[in-house]
Task: inverse folding
């Protein structure tokens, strides 16, 4: 709905100085929550590289959308909307790498793992906002390290019997991050009973004929 409203407003105004309305902010928040739920069990490609771009988008899009609404900055809304195009770019990249010789001989996991971050970067770059792509890359790297840290630290504290205030506070923070899916899949499998986490890896977007065993 956000995407349609944006392009309708853009066509009506004759430029891309479009600002989000309350309904756009609400739509973005719903999209963000749904994305976090879905990416928590994402098992396609290499989860270490495919999950962080989705997580960054799910967290930053509503922040950017709300900031654009409050500060009345069309450029921020343009970044938020451009990020939605990553889904289209991802399918195009998968199609391109599948049917061209550039990644011939590589598994579907490699194709998917490369396509997702590349698509996210291209979509943010499409906003034409200086520094947005770099900020996205840094945020993605940070989230990847955050997932690693939560995985490592939560395992340590799980075995700890210390009851200090700081340790208990840290445990609550880690529990919240785990609930939102900010950890590596192996750790999420340990703390979650979600059946989706135990299913085998698959990719509906890379043609089965191209899969390499």
Result:
């Amino acid at each position: 709905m956000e995407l349609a409203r944006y392009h309708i407003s853009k066509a009506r105004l004759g430029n891309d100085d479009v600002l989000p309305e309350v309904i756009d902010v609400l739509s973005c928040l719903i999209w963000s929550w749904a994305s976090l739920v879905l990416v928590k069990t994402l098992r396609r490609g290499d989860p270490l590289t495919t999950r962080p771009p989705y997580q960054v988008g799910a967290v930053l899009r509503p922040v950017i959308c709300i900031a654009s609404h409050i500060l009345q900055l069309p450029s921020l809304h343009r970044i938020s909307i451009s990020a939605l195009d990553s889904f289209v770019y991802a399918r195009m990249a998968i199609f391109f790498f599948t049917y061209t010789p550039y990644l011939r001989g590589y598994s579907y996991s490699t194709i998917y793992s490369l396509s997702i971050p590349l698509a996210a970067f291209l979509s943010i770059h499409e906003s034409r906002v200086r520094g947005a792509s770099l900020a996205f890359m840094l945020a993605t790297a940070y989230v990847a390290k955050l997932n690693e840290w939560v995985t490592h630290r939560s395992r340590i504290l799980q075995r700890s019997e210390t009851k200090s205030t700081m340790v208990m506070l840290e445990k609550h923070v880690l529990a919240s991050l785990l609930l939102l899916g900010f950890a590596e899949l192996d750790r999420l499998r340990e703390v979650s009973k979600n059946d989706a986490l135990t299913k085998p890896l698959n990719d509906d977007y890379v043609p089965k004929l191209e899969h390499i065993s």
Remarks:
- The chain is about 70% helix and 0% strand.
- Residues 208-213 have pLDDT under 50 and may be disordered.
- The chain has one domain: 1-197.
- The radius of gyration is 19 Å.
